[in-house]
TrEMBL record, chain A:
Family, similarity comment: Belongs to the ThiI family.
Annotated organism of origin: Lachnobacterium bovis
InterPro entries tied to this protein: Rossmann-like_a/b/a_fold (IPR014729), ThiI_AANH (IPR020536), ThiI_fer (IPR054173), ThiI_N (IPR049961), THUMP_dom (IPR004114), THUMP_ThiI (IPR049962), tRNA_STrfase (IPR003720), tRNA_sulfurtransferase_ThiI (IPR050102)
Signal peptide positions (record): none
Any GO BP annotation: thiamine biosynthetic process
A Pfam family matched in the record: ThiI
Name this protein carries in UniProt: Probable tRNA sulfurtransferase
Gene that encodes it: thiI
Record flagged with keyword Cytoplasm: yes
From TrEMBL, chain B:
UniProt name for this protein: cysteine desulfurase
A Pfam family it matches: Aminotran_5
Family to which this protein belongs: Belongs to the class-V pyridoxal-phosphate-dependent aminotransferase family. NifS/IscS subfamily.
Keyword Transmembrane helix: no
Amino acid sequence: MYSAFLIKYAEIAIKGKNRYLFEDALVSNIKYKLRNVDGEFLVRKEQGRVYVETTGEYDYEDTVDALKKVFGITGICPVILTEDEGFDKLCETVIKHVDSTYKDKNITFKVNARRARKNYPLNSMEINALVGEKVLEAFPEMKVDVHKPDIVINIEVRKQINIYSVEIPGAKGMPLGTAGKAMLLLSGGIDSPVAGYMVSKRGVTIEATYFHAPPYTSERAKQKVVDLAKKMARYTGKINLNVVNFTDIQLYIYEKCPHEQLTIIMRRYMMKIAEHFAKESGCLGLVTGESIGQVASQTMQSLVATNEVCELPVYRPLIAFDKQDIIEVADKIDTYETSILPFEDCCTIFVAKHPVTKPNLSYIKKSELKLTEKIDELVKEAIDTVEVIKVEPEEI
Amino acid sequence: MEAYLDNSATTKCLDSVAEKMVDLLTVNYGNPSAMHLKGVAAEFQIREAKKKIAKTLKAKDKEILFTSGGTESNNLAIIGTALANERKGKHIITTSIEHPSINNPMLFLKEKGFEIDHLEVDENGQISLEDLKNKVRKDTILVSIMHVNNEIGALEPIYEAAKIVKEINQQCVMHVDAIQSYGKFKIVPGKNNIDLLSVSGHKIHGPKGSGFLYIKDKTKINPIILGGGQQDGMRSGTENVPAYVGLSIAAEEAYNNFQEKIEKLYQLKKYFIEKVTEIEDVTVNGKKDRDCAPHIISVSVKDVRAEVLLHSLEESGIYVSAGSACSSNHPGISSTLKEIGLKKELLDSTVRFSMSSFTKKEELDYAVDKMKEIIPQLRKYTRR
């Protein structure tokens, strides 16, 4: 049983004077993520490393699962931490570790020693050679391959000796809370949760806005969006979800504007309203799940039209993704099953049979002039009647 | 104001039922199989419950088998009969407008090599006895016909059908899905050639998770749940005493002042149909007089999507369902409406109102008033 995990991170290591900020965020995010896992954990920084140490019993699977959801970690290495009790004892520990970790001994390996504590009697090359020899003696089926080994037995001589050979891939990215805040337009479809996840992965804190249109969309459709936010929150942390009643605006646009422009104009108002909440809560940008050409409202021409209403930058992490690639990520973060539940969302209810695919901004603006009489009042009402739901991460 | 008009989906549990159930959950909670006094007391409760229910059908106590509800009763009736009789034949007849708890066991049997024949229905949702006569064969082992259709309230001629079945093939088992009709019609299965009859508790103001299958004495049927041998081995598992006793109270209550309650329902139905069809382009599906169920009204509203109407009504505290509630979580077009040949553009524009003996005229007025208000609004914004 491993008594600790060595947490590897890539990008943080190349930061300069700010490095400690990223590391501290990572440590605190790891602590937060492990709070509901069975076991006692000590998370500490040491010489450019983060360790998660355990004392006594803990749930290994749950711990790894939790760590896999922390942004900023590239690798999770279950590690044996042992005091220096002489070289023979070290070899014994390595052999025991190899024996219990690899049932099939027909593998190639290499020993990779590093000596941070320079007063150790052997240097790294010597450790490599001598430990390698002992392993070969113990398991004659194993072979050395220094170029492309199946396993790398890492031995790091620090205050304690670290032995590890397994590295579980982490979520990568940057620690949450190190990059500012963004407002996600969350629809209930497949794409927007993935977009939120991807931006959050860069350390960005996420808030969300959802537009519902009762009676055209149901309470269940809204619940579905809350469920999606809960799933996202396992990665992104708590999410403030703004639920905006969009019915009156939608019907007003429907009444006054050419039908084939409905979706574009609707989306322009959605962006405006989302931006209002974004600014109000100090967000530095908007996030959408748009991808070029996926539907009529996501052609480059349409994106020009929806982009035009925003002052804040609009981040579109999926812009060059194919649907299948988006689905793969959705599957990985476990939002796909929820996204495909068949509830009508407000974008589809009045959709035209042939919506414009190459809207001309000046025509769109001209159509919007027909809304002058009431639209400001309706937008204000939608903003004033917003329902804010504080979404906590779904427990596994 | 609230108007709950979705009583074919489920009903409010009677206070007297709930009270008795609390007692059976917290005070007299014995296991009827236990040898001690608390067990004996529970067993007595079950015997009394069977007696009460048997009385409503003029049946014997031992002909009542408790289940977890309508779906289990239907599954047992179909699969249990098939298992017990497959050596006599593999031919089964049912109708084209059955509930999924009939359709899916039938599909299951079809995959196992049984031959399933369907009786078509007319524009009112009724089967043709002539058609039935032509389809029953010597190797037909089961005929399953619903008494009242859950979506449009069509009433099937079960006594006549059962008679025809038995005249042609005495051995064939006759099953009736009475889930929407029990408590609304007096049914005497024993004298009328019906061998099996399914009932659900929560449709008649009893608890969810309760139901029974009437199994006429000497009917050949196998259990589908095996275990400790409770209920004479026909349905293993510790008896859900509170649910079964609750169901029996509800059943007894359903047949108290029966004529009066049913008369009131028919009058309310007539009243509602008159009022609701005053709205332009609103039509009622199926039969409208005494030759249909007293509590179900299927209403088509041209150019309004059922789901949208449903959610608009819900904003005013009016609860109805679109198509059949059981299948409405996976929106697809209702099969019954298709089978009765409803116009394509109305399939997705049909809602069901269903009443109970607690339904008041004021609730119907309220619902119609709201519809008069909402429908023209919704029609303004249809998909162009």
